[in-house]
Structure formats: structure tokens, C-alpha cells
Amino acid sequence: MKGKEWYQATEVAEEYEDKRFSQGGRLIDRQEKEAVSTALGDLEGKKVLEIACGTGRFSVMLAARGADVVGLDISDAMLSQGREKARGAGLSERVEFVRGDAARLPFPDDHFDAVLAMRFFHLIPNPDRYLEEIRRVTSDQLVFDTFNTPSTRSIYNRLLPMGSRLYEESDVSAMLERTGYELTDSTHDFLLPYGFYRAIPRSVADAFYRVESGLRDTEAGDGFASVTYWDARIN
Description:
Strands 1, 2, 3, 4, 5, 6, 7 and 8 form an eight-stranded mixed β-sheet that branches. The chain has one domain: 3-Layer(aba) Sandwich (Rossmann fold). It is α/β, with parallel strands linked by helices. The chain has helices at residues 4-8, 10-20, 25-40, 57-64, 76-88, 127-137, 152-159, 169-178, 194-198, 202-216, 219-222, and strands spanning 47-51, 68-73, 95-99, 112-117, 138-148, 166-167, 181-189, 227-234. α2 (10-20) packs across α5. Residues 48-139 form the Methyltransferase domain.
């Protein structure tokens, strides 16, 4: 797994979005933002915390949809990119970026209406600890994603220098129940792993995605999706 030092490096933050969300990566960005927007629904006047906000691509989007947003991350370099993005969008007054640890959130109980945690749960060794802390600061909703097994991600994961924690649906259901949440919805996406899509042009990625969407819509294909977006509520 890549260490915290790598993630917090200024050069990594400056190149992060170009490497992750250029070419076919723009398709990934679109699908993730659609899933988040659908799950969170109407955000006008709501207070939302984004954990592991990185360069703020979700935080700024949520602010543009009417939410008052706090983006939390461990990397000052990533947060700097987020602040620049918010300024460019004219949304600095609606987004605050805070450096902090998701295991010890610097907020009072029930402070947020919703918490968003994308690209986070595959990196942490003890999800229950984080889920309990998230439940403490939110009064209603948690939206997050996981990488799944069985899926092509399992194969891709073996080739990566940084591993990812993979989940089965039963794992997610059990950890939510243990920590005081009720699962209300889930959406599966991407039969092929993200790394494949990032390596090809957007037009080719769109074509592959149309084909895999047809396969994923079958009962067998749906069970092998690489990614799931989860919508949970406080019990």
C-alpha cells in the first residue's frame, strides 16, 4: 500500500486529477458523480462532510448543488488543490477544507446531515472504527463506495504495488449492522477495473462501458461488478 508520505506529496496532489481522471478516467468521474448525486438527493441547505476529500472534486460539486460542505483530508497538498478548485468555481464560502483524521473527527455529535466517503474504505484496516466515528457526527445518511470481490478487481489488485481492501456484499451488510446503520440502497458499477479505463482514450472507454453495461444488467454480470456505491442511514 502506498504510504501517507506519497499521498501527501505536493507533486502527487498537483498531478492527481490529470492521472486519475483524464482519458477514460473522465468516464469514471462521471459515473461516480452521478451515483453520489443520486444517493444524496436534494442538498439545498444541508450540511455535508466529505471524508478523504482529496482535491475536492466531490466537495465542490456538492456545494454547487446547494450544500454547505466540509472536506476533510490528511494531505495539506490535496486540500490546497481543493481550495483552488472552490475559488475557481466561486464556491469558497460554501466549502471549508480541513486537515484531519477520519478516526477522530473534529466535529460535535450530529453535526452533519450526511457524510460522503468515496475511495476511502478500500484503504483502511478497521472499518468499524471509522463507521462508528462517522455515525457520531451525522444525523442521517452515509454514502460510500467499495471495491468488490469476486470481480476483475481481485485480479488487478494482485498486480498493484498498493493493495486495496475488497468487500463482499455480506461484509458491508454485517459491518453496517454492527455499527448502527441500516442499508437502504446499493448500485453496482464497472465490470472492468478502473486501471483499464484510465489507460484508454475516452471514446474507447465509452464503447467498452456500453458493452459491459449490458452484461452487468444480467443477474450473473451484476454479481461481478468491481465497484458498489452504498447508501446507508443511521438506525
